[in-house]
Fold this protein.
Amino acid sequence: MKKRIAIIYMLTAMLTFGAIGQSKVRMQDFERQLAQLLERVSEAPTDNERYLASEEAVQLLSQALDEPESERWTWHLPTVASVMSSPDGKLRVFTWPVVRDNGEYECFGIIQFYNDRDEEYQYQVLNDKSEEIMNREESVLTAGNWFGAVYQDIIQTTFNGRTLYTLLGWNGVDNLTERKIIEPVTMRGGKPQFGAPVFRRERNQRRIVLEYNNHAMVGLSYEEQFVREVIRERVKVKGSSRYRTVETYKDHKEKMIIFDEVEPQIPGMEGLFQYYVPSGLELAYSFVDGKWELRNGAEGRLSDKKLNKAFEPLEKTKPAYGR
């Protein structure tokens, strides 16, 4: 009897490992074919060929994400494509651009996510509707109505048991402008929702869009910086009954989203983003009590040095970026 059980166990193990091996081979084949398609997306000589390759890449990636092994698969794709995975493994975003002959960009991709309600991984195709979205900073969007970007980082934060994913992205737009985008993503009804009112003091704002002249250099990154906390206390003046306020400083490190403020280079050009350039001021968002708190005085290019001035929340009258 024991011998029979051992044989059954061995056969089951062989079948299991065989299935895993076959799935791995299939994933390797998907990855190889997808890499070839993405190379065509960036190198094909005509718009039609680039779009055809992109559509085939979406279809092939969809097939790959139906594989159970895709949940754990580490993708190695050409640099034209971005693959961003959240630290908890519950969200992964594939994005890439198609550049038309006239210099205009359109983004493509798929978002893979864990649906807590269905207790399984699912995916949705991303449809770039960025040029059709009127209130682009205030709109709540879905995968089918997506403000297109190629994502460069994914930030995971948690407050009161609720998880927020914040995506940092870029879009080449056209021959005049580019965009940098801060895109919050939450799970609603088990599905991803783009845009959330998590920017403190920015009323009705659900994403940050920095649009600027395509020759300008605008930074956007998530990194650890020093924050200077100002400590004020009243102390008694020696030999007197009077008191005075004494300020001391305490530095600590904190991860934050650092970005350049942009504004019109020429007065009167508000809203004409081809005239927007960095103002010279760096701003930052720190995650505080479930919200992104806007601060100024950031020194994102001096991350190995302490601040030489207090790092305070941004005043309400100071705009976050050019409009």
